[in-house]
Amino acid sequence: MSTDYQQAREALGRRLRELRMSAVGGRLTGTQLAQRLGWPHSKVYKLEGGRQTAIPKDLQAWAEAVGHADTAEELVARLKGFESHIRSWRRQLGAGHRPVQDTWNVAVDQARVIHAWEEAVIPGMLQTADYARHIFLRYADLQGTKRDTEEAVRSRMERQSWLYQGGRRFHALVWEPALHALVCPPSVLAAQLDRLAGQIGMDTIELGIIPLCASLKVPTANGFWILDNTLVIAEDWHAELWLDDNETVVSYRRVWETLSESAVYGADAQNVINRARRTLNLR
Question: I need a labelling partner for 212 at 20 to 30 A (CA). Which of 137, 174, 179, 273 fits?
Answer without folding.
Answer: 137
